[in-house]
Design goal:
The protein is α+β, with helices and mostly antiparallel strands. The chain has helices spanning 2-24, 82-87, 100-110, 123-136, 153-164, 183-189, 196-205, 223-232, 265-281, 287-309, 328-335, 341-361, 365-383; strands at 35-42, 54-61, 66-74, 92-99, 114-118, 143-145, 170-172, 233-235, 242-243, 249-252. It folds into 2 domains: 33-79 and 87-184 and 213-252, Alpha-Beta Complex (endopeptidase fold (from Nostoc punctiforme)), CATH 3.90.1720; 265-383, no CATH class. It contains 13 helices and 10 strands. Strand 2 and strand 3 (66-74) form a beta hairpin. It is elongated, with a radius of gyration of 26 Å.
């Protein structure tokens, strides 16, 4: 609800600014015959925040010497308490504006690909988009509160194009064939292969909101998804439907070196599980090892609780990972063999629910191995038949 109110305010302000611009400009800021609008889609980079690529809007008018790129993905590293605000979901992103040549030079230096899709907007709609972006670039309006799923550099592009086009009805063409996906699955699809540790971390941070099945409009929070949907979307018209964008044109091929494959986390935690089982069977396992294992899991749980209740992140709420990374494990680590049996059975019950959730939602298999490792040690404590305190 908070997000919807914020979005309505932004759109309402944009409409007011647009209306005032029309009243003060007898002539369009762009020429009628030489202007064009493009959606730029950029490939992933080496840094984590560039993993999912990027989207931007290009406005070009050769008759008036305009060739600008508007980019909603910039932020200021000099912001006071930058990392603390980032962690708490209170970091403001901003709209950046640069020349097309400078934009391309940056991506060429990073070895990242860039493609463009020309939007089939008429001269008035292209001028509308230009005016909206220029007004949104004013210092008092260029900042916005970033939300990974609902308000990011791609969704802002999507919303501005729709607003400039007058909210025209659209329909997906027959070429669009996409399997239903949750937010989590869409993100995981981008993190396979060389980024499996990042996938593990994100699957541990994301809560139930990430398991919402994304609509076609919601899928556009990812730049590549927006690129593919624009390629298959049509304007609905009285005389028939027409594509919203021209076929994609590659402007810059990817030239960066691919990331080297890391040691898979599922193998790492499978080895940990086997090691724990063997050491327990051989009676090499020591009580301090239980304490270390449970303290680490409990501290992870405390961090997940903080991300749930202590931040503004929508996607980290209602995180069922705290059922296995349970802060109760900190108390068990302190008392260990003197822990009440009910607390051990309760912990095992939480582990079982967490395992069902991991399997049902398709989280990283490494999390299931962590649950099995912790459950094995809790069962070992129960089998020792220590007297109740």
């Amino acid at each position: 609800m908070k997000f919807q109110c914020c979005l309505l305010k932004v759109l309402g302000l944009s409409l007011l600014l647009f209306a005032s611009s029309l009243s003060s400009h007898a002539q369009s800021p762009l020429s009628d015959s030489a202007c064009a609008a493009y959606v730029l889609t950029c490939g992933p980079g080496d840094d984590f925040y560039t993993t999912f690529g990027h989207s931007a809007i290009r406005i070009c008018d050769s008759a008036r010497g305009i060739d600008l790129v508007y980019n909603y993905g910039t932020f200021d590293f000099n912001t006071p308490h930058f990392y603390w605000k980032f962690m708490r979901g209170q970091l403001d992103y901003q709209l950046g504006r640069t020349s097309f040549s400078h934009f391309m030079a940056e991506y060429e230096a990073e070895g990242r690909s860039v493609s463009q899709q020309r939007l089939y907007l008429d001269a008035r709609q292209t001028a509308n988009l230009y005016i909206l972006l220029e007004q949104n670039y004013l210092p008092e309006y260029r900042h916005y509160r970033y939300d990974f799923f609902r308000d990011n550099c791609a969704t802002r592009v999507r919303d501005m194009v729709a607003l400039a086009a007058g909210k025209r009805d659209t329909v997906l063409g027959p070429d669009w064939q996409a399997e239903p996906r949750s937010y989590r699955r869409l993100v995981d699809d981008n993190l396979e292969g060389t980024l499996q540790w990042w996938r593990l971390g994100i699957d541990m941070l994301f809560g139930l909101p990430a398991d919402h099945r994304a609509s076609d409009m919601e899928r556009m929070f990812l730049p590549q998804q927006m690129h593919d949907i624009y390629a298959a979307t049509l304007w609905r018209g009285v005389c028939g439907n027409a594509y919203i964008a021209a076929p994609s044109e590659e402007l810059l091929p990817e030239s960066r070196q691919p990331l080297s494959a890391s040691f898979p986390p599922v193998v790492a935690f499978a080895l940990l599980f086997v090691l724990v089982v063997i050491m327990s069977w051989k009676q090499w396992w020591r009580p301090w090892m239980d304490r270390v294992l449970m303290v680490l899991a409990g501290l992870v749980g405390l961090f997940l609780v903080f991300m749930w209740v202590g931040t503004d992140h929508y996607c980290t709420q209602w995180n069922l990972n705290i059922l296995w990374a349970n802060p109760l494990l900190l108390l068990i680590a302190i008392r260990l063999h003197r822990s009440p049996r009910w607390s051990l059975w309760l912990t095992l019950g939480c582990f079982a629910v967490a395992a069902v959730w991991v399997l049902w939602c398709g989280l990283s298999p490494a999390i299931l191995l962590l649950i099995l490792t912790l459950a094995f040690r809790i069962l070992s404590l129960l089998r020792q038949k220590q007297p109740l305190p």
